[in-house]
Amino acid sequence: MKMKKILALGMAMTMALSLSACGGSSSAAKSEAPASSAASAVESEATASSAAESSAASSAAAAADGQTYTVGICQLVQHPALDAATQGFKDALTEKLGDSVTFDEQNAAGDSATCSTICNQFVSSNYDLIMANATPALQAAVSATSDIPILGTSVTDYATALDIKDWAGSTGINVSGTSDLAPLDQQAEIIKTLFPEAKNVGILYCSAEANSKYQATVITEALTGMGYTVKEYTFADSNDVAQVTQSACGENEVLYIPTDNTAASCTEAIDNVATPAGIPIVCGEEGICKGCGVATLSISYYDLGVATAEMAYEVLVNGADVSTMDVQFAPNVTYEYVAERCEALNITAPEDYTAISTEE
Fold this sequence. Notes:
The structure is a single chain. Helix content is 52%, strand content 18%. The protein is α/β, with parallel strands linked by helices. It has helices at 2-32, 35-58, 60-63, 80-97, 112-124, 135-144, 158-162, 184-194, 210-225, 241-251, 261-264, 267-277, 286-292, 301-316, 339-344, and strands spanning 69-75, 101-107, 129-133, 150-155, 175-179, 200-206, 229-235, 254-257, 281-283, 295-298, 328-329, 334-338, 354-356. The protein folds into 2 domains: 68-180 and 301-329, Response regulator (Rossmann fold), CATH 3.40.50; 184-298 and 333-356, Rossmann fold (3-Layer(aba) Sandwich), CATH 3.40.50. The strands form 2 sheets. The protein has a 7-stranded mixed β-sheet, sandwiched between helices. A 6-stranded parallel β-sheet has the order 2-1-3-4-5-11, with helices on both faces.
């Protein structure tokens, strides 16, 4: 028994020494490290962790949770307003999703039929989302698919564009987006403020654009209520813009152009007629105003694109139902005037109007 006890005691001592040897170096290091160094190490780890979390938060890949997305962009025509909306959309969605999102950006060069071809290609490629920039692009996308989520931008009135009778803010189909409509009653007030003595106002727009017709109807009612005589002048496409503008200038003291895509791409032709004739033009947005106008109540199309990107993120990443998402509007509007044209036409803009330049 004694021998067994002695052997057991010896083995226990050996194990104790062994454990002490294995842990000695680590224990010594721990005992030698000052408390401040340990705290500093913890703080450094926390800082690194915070930086990593911040990086991950801004990282598109992290935001996309490993998913990748392809977004088709169909833009009706190239002009400053639509270009800005597309750029804002791409910048904001790239900021959120980084390399996880890929864009197929196509421009229809003002042709509605080309919009249809583009959107059908997006559908054939089974893209994750379609961004339709301008009303004809939106209508083409809707005709192409009832399944892929569609977000419009630079669309004035979705009820008009999609022929929805009982409008309640959302479409009920695979479509939502942002509207570029600045309050039309306030646009009419610009004409009253700047041209109180005028009698006749001509409204110039493209007959092929449903939303331009909508704006013309609404602002005609507002201007008529202010005592103006209002007449609409429409062109079918860019080929007859100059001729129609000449007719409008010959019969009115002031012209109004709504947010019309064809007019926006033909501002030089319009200005070449209106400025020599001494006829001022109030416009529905900044890009047209820079090209041929004297004043506008405008929104930021870049910000509108950003708002559309935020909706896209909700659809793509968070699974939001696009059919129930309310159409969004620009949060701010700004009264603007073109100083050069106002000076040439002896127009004095109110002090709260912001001067804009015709130069890019």
